[in-house]
Amino acid sequence: MPPALELRGLRKSYYQKPVLFGLDLTVAPGQIVGYIGPNGAGKTTTLRILGGLDNRFDGEVRVLGIDVRKDPLSVKRRIGYLPESADLYDVLTPAEFYDLVGSLHGMEEPRIRDRAARLEEYLGLSYRRNQRMDSFSKGMRQKVLLTSILLHDPDLIFMDEPLNGLDANSVIRVKDLLRQLTERGKTIFYSSHIMDVVERISDRIILLNDGRIAANGTFAELNARAHSDNLEHLFTQLTGGRAGGEGPRFNLDSDE
Ligand SMILES: Nc1ncnc2c1ncn2[C@@H]1O[C@H](COP(=O)(O)OP(=O)(O)OP(=O)(O)O)[C@@H](O)[C@H]1O
């Protein structure tokens, strides 16, 4: 079986300004990988390239053994991609949206309904199935999107901030869902800013800083290297930030 992901010398610039400086990475199938880094480090940019949404890059990117630049459609058929923010078709109900997404993947209606119903029930969204989505909260929209990207049972799932907008109970549900998916051999590559979640559910953690991989390993390996015992501390150490209370103070009072 080929690696789920293979990046060799991935470089990307926006208008001549480099943002990714030659990423090398291999991810084995069945792993859940947390992709972390400061704002603007290049996480979304990487995810968009891996998902076949941006082919203007240098280097080589293979997703499930497929060259993403040469054959983005084959990649898209086998992956699920959860964007950081997406416009849902507000005038549709979730059921109609799933029918649309499922049919784009060539799925038969009974299978779409069955998969959607099971995912919705798991995420506690079934009661909304036939309501228009224009009144949905951010968390509800996130659950609809999550359901829609898993409908066709993809082998590899990319997620940009999947826990955005979810309440505490839903975060637990989604974390369990991700774990169950990897137990079934799926590979998950996701970005998040919620360090304690990344710490607990990732088989591997990749820290991107200023477009370069600053750390890559299991939580235990990274901690041993940085003599730290939590991801927040490690993140701060490796990205040049300061722990709470150590940095410059924000002056709340006017000087005048
Ligand atoms: N379409 C674009 N045009 C020009 N510059 C862009 C574009 N998209 C992203 N950038 C720049 O590329 C860099 C990386 O952005 P990216 O969104 O990949 O970071 P990120 O790690 O996902 O950040 P965040 O954690 O804030 O979501 C930033 O400097 C950003 O300003």
UniProtKB/TrEMBL annotation:
Q: Which domain of life is it from?
A: Bacteria
Q: GO MF annotations for this entry?
A: ATP binding; ATP hydrolysis activity
Q: Does the keyword Nucleotide-binding apply?
A: yes
Name the UniProt key words of this record, in alphabetical order: ATP-binding, Nucleotide-binding
Q: Which CDD domains match?
A: ABC_DR_subfamily_A
ATP-binding: is it a keyword of this entry?
yes
| Domain ABC transporter: residue ranges | 5-235
One Pfam annotation reads ABC_tran
Q: Give the matching PANTHER family.
A: ABC TRANSPORTER, ATP-BINDING PROTEIN
Instruction: Identify this protein by name.
Output: ABC-2 type transport system ATP-binding protein
